[in-house]
Amino acid sequence: MKRLLILITILALEMIPVFARQKPDAPLAPNDYSWMSHIRGGHPRMFITADDIPFIRHAAETFENETFRTMKKRADALIGKEIVFTDPLSRTGEGGANRMYGYYASDAAMMWLITEDSKYLDLTKRILGKLTDYYRLRVENNLNIEWYALSQVCAMCAWDWIYNDLTPEERVSYGKPLYEVMCRIAWHGPGVRKTRFRENVSDFRSGCYGVAVLPWFVGLTFCNEGYDDAYCRDMLKRGYDYLQQMTAFRAEMLGTKGGGASGVPWYCLAWYPYSEYNLIHTFRSAMGIDISQKMEYMVGYLNYIDWIRLPGNLEYGFGDSSHYKAGLPVGYLNAHVHELANIFGERYPEIIPVAARLARQYDQRRNWDPIPFMRLLHRFDPLAEASKVEVAQAKQPKSMYFDTMGQLYMRSGVGENDTYALFVSGGIPKQHKHYDNNHFTIFKNGFRALDSGSRPEPGWHLPYYYARTVAHNCITVYMPGETFPKYWGGPAACEDKTLKQPNDGGQCNILGSGLLAHEETEDYVYVASDATACYNPQKVYGVVREMVWCCPDIFVIFDRVCSRKAEYEKSWLYHTAAEPVMNGKHEFS
Predict the structure, then answer these.
(1) Which of 140, 104, 147 is nearest to 123 (CA)?
(2) Which 3 state secondary structure label does DSSP give 420?
(3) What is the pTM of this model?
(4) Distance CA 434, CA 444 (A)
């Protein structure tokens, strides 16, 4: 027996401009190593050249003085102190000060370049000597350095930057041991060596900040030093191949409007973009080649950063986001806005005013960026440059569909009292996405319809509620005896290990929905989405949702649910921060 269930809900709320941009994606060419013939013979060539030092000093004295003072303070704290690595054979190198010494080395070396005070040169050498010994001790015991490899990149930068101020003997005595241990950290994989506990060996679809990126930097830093030039060239090719795959994947993921390698900001817009920045900077410094022209898809990050924001720098809560405070990674986003403006602003000056607005909104800096010295490479501050750029103001859309992310955002403006909404449909990435197709979030002076649940690690709540359809504003159809796929996460020590996965009547496929329509006029935004393929075909043959946003503050949600049996219970889920109260026949609060 078949039955059609139709649910209509009207939500009253309040108003409009925005920014959208799209750029062609052109990732790096595979198997093209012609750039190797352009590698500089001298040093420095990691992120900077000798010609950059005056600009770095200018940035340190002016618009990036805060970055300079923070780095100097860290370096000064180590002057005259013994370099000590506590518990060097701990099971993992994460946590504590040990993992930070790679960053400390680049702090000291950068201070030497800027101030020419010899105490920083001496400090750099002391750190590098002790750090190399620490790295060697850990790899000899098959232990990781840490989850992120960027501190090791910074250590190589330090050697590269002080190279010209080392004696020929010191260049070898500091360089060769560092090169050898970096090769042992970087060279990994089946048949090469055993994987180390908490070693990040993820592929190009991830954040690309683990040991897999190291071959590129090892090859660039030490090529032509005579240690093993053939091996360095092999490292460079392997590193390039990995990063080429990354750029191709990310270009696809950003699509025509923008996005990230995941639809969750704390993943795709925290550490992830640094892999691309690092590639652009080192290509320029080591080869004199500007590859940012081939990576213009990255401008889409700026558009995505613009649309994912709610007032107060809150986020919508999509996927594996933390719902405790619902805060965006503001410090990272501040860094990304400044970086993207500096990389692409000269070619596309129209992004500068947008970057300036976002920089004002995301106004908090991290004390420690993933590449601590990167801001000193900037040539301008977008906040200062925005007033110099004249851009024709195009009419702002009320909605933007990020097709690869499977997220359609709607907003009446970018102010504190505007109306904001998210509708979930389509998309490519599975990582960190929930069983939430056709879900909606509405925000107006607070969350009016929200994404519920949290992510305790460990804890059954994560895989058994938080990620499942029941935690979202979706439709559930209960079919007795239905089983569901597992989501990541597991029980806490105090929880029953044999607990069975609950049957919440939700979706069994993370992907499978598709947008049927998206229409925008002066008065409304209309969207329709088919999520049938996300449910078990034995219980439904139709789950379609239509949503109309009647500007400025009314939402109409219309669902068609066709079940295989009439007795299958249907639920229309609507999660709110507090219990809704009806005010007459047409409004609730």
Answers:
(1) 104
(2) strand
(3) 0.93
(4) 24
